[in-house]
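Lab notebook, design round three. We kept the backbone fixed and only want residue identities now. Task for the bench partner: fill in a sequence for the structure below.
Input structure tokens:
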């Protein structure tokens, strides 16, 4: 089925600092690049909040009828410990030293863990997860091109980008070169033309992950040029949307724009979207406080990955959001109430009865879509789902409306990825016991019915009698549905 892309999707563009109607460069196709992780440690739940922005966008654009070409990179070399100044040690090599392991082993291990976290959190896989270390020739091509065009210069075996050669430098972050110069944050390297010039290529014989190039024997790329080269290789010279965390705006994305636009002469990305940091216990996550939780910590406490996913999308991506274990517990209850809603809708859809309640479902769907079209306003979108649940608790839906509500929840799940809609089949023994108990109740043999219920409880199956049939569910909360 070919859907016509929605024309009303509004996104907040960091570049213009306002909401704009989204239009793709090529009709029906979206090219999207997401800055991925630097794989020197386990991704924490705050990182996941940033990556979820990419996944929500991907899902909503597809539901709106676009083909989405999505690329999320893996930074496995060249990201230095002092992000702002582009100085310090390579984060991966520093971690390798701490763990007394090979840096390649470090990056491979954490890349695998990252991809497995994404899968557990129901991320839709992108077209490709390019690794920086596999794109060095593409980076060198751009660096040499930037030198040829007068935007970069060599100092010994290092290469720097000349920010004064690119007048728009600072447009994304609002930083002005003059102000940056006045600030003392950037350690001034004598050999740079301007203090805020950043490295495209560095040479260091002691670096373990290094490449031979025209610039010398022992070089490695700067972090920023990696994304310019990988996005160009996989998506072409112009992107529709580029995402990242709020900390990427400066210097990383500012530098990407300068490199890519100086090289191609074209606008690099038209929409820039940035997710706010997650707070934990009302403050910044920190290793010192021991609250840089990973998905494993969440699962070890008995939660499902989808509980965390819900917890991270229940706030709007541009607003502050807090995480505590108490909030995660509330999220679990909220999702269980929706699981229960699904079971009740299945009963109502299968039962007879007059047509009623269609307008409630249509209104919920319209509010959900309007919220998602409004810069992915997930809290409002979720509110529409809970409003429908609240309005229909008293069995106010007829069978057709219950069907429509289940269809709406499928759309919600396609957009948000947090519901449990699959119907779990009962094994024949359990179904036989439920039916035998129903028959016993019909025959008013309540002793037999109670005994059969006891057998089901022993098998981990809970039953609830409703006016429209019996609802079963597993005691561990997985699965469940109606039996007529
Ligand atoms: Zn990047």
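Proposed sequence:
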């Amino acid at each position: 089925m070919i859907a016509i892309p929605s024309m009303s999707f509004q996104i907040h563009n960091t570049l213009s600092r306002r909401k704009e109607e989204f239009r793709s460069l090529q009709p029906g196709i979206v090219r999207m690049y997401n800055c991925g992780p630097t794989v020197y440690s386990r991704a924490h739940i705050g990182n996941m909040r940033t990556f979820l922005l990419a996944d929500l966008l991907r899902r909503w654009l597809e539901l709106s009828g676009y083909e989405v070409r999505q690329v999320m990179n893996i930074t496995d070399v060249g990201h230095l410990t002092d992000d702002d100044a582009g100085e310090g040690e390579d984060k991966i090599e520093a971690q390798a030293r701490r763990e007394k392991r090979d840096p390649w082993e470090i990056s491979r291990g954490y890349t695998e863990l990252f991809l497995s976290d994404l899968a557990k959190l129901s991320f839709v896989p992108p077209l490709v997860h390019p690794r920086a270390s596999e794109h060095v020739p593409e980076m060198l091509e751009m660096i040499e091109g930037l030198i040829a065009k007068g935007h970069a210069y060599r100092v010994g075996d290092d290469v720097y980008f000349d920010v004064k050669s690119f007048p728009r430098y600072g447009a994304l972050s609002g930083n002005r070169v003059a102000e940056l110069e006045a600030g003392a944050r950037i350690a001034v390297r004598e050999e740079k033309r301007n203090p805020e010039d950043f490295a495209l290529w560095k040479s260091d014989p002691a670096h373990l992950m290094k490449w031979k190039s025209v610039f010398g024997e022992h070089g490695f790329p700067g972090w920023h040029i990696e994304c310019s080269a990988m996005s160009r290789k996989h998506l072409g010279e112009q992107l529709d949307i580029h995402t990242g965390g709020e900390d990427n705006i400066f210097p990383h994305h500012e530098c990407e724009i300068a490199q890519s636009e100086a090289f191609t002469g074209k606008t690099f990305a038209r929409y820039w979207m940035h997710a706010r940091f997650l707070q934990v216990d009302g403050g910044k996550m920190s290793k010192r406080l021991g609250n840089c939780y990973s998905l494993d910590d969440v699962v070890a406490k008995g939660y499902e990955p989808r509980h965390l996913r819900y917890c991270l999308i229940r706030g709007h991506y541009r607003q502050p959001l807090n995480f505590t274990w108490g909030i995660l517990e509330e999220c679990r209850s909220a999702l269980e109430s929706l699981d229960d809603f699904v079971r009740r809708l299945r009963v109502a859809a299968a039962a007879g009865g007059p047509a009623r309640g269609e307008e409630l479902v249509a209104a919920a769907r319209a509010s959900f879509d309007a919220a998602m079209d409004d810069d992915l306003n997930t809290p409002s979108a979720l509110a529409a789902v809970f409003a429908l649940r609240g309005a229909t608790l008293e069995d106010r839906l007829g069978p057709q409306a219950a069907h429509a509500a289940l269809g709406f929840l499928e759309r919600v799940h396609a957009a948000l990825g947090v519901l449990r809609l699959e119907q779990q089949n009962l094994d024949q023994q359990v179904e036989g016991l439920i039916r035998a108990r129903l028959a016993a109740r019909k025959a008013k043999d309540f002793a037999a019915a109670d005994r059969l219920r006891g057998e089901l409880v022993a098998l981990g199956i809970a039953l609830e009698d409703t006016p429209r049939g019996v609802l079963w569910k597993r005691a561990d909360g997985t699965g469940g549905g109606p039996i007529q």
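Keep this in mind before ordering anything: Residues 35, 227, 252 surround zinc ion (CB under 6 Å).
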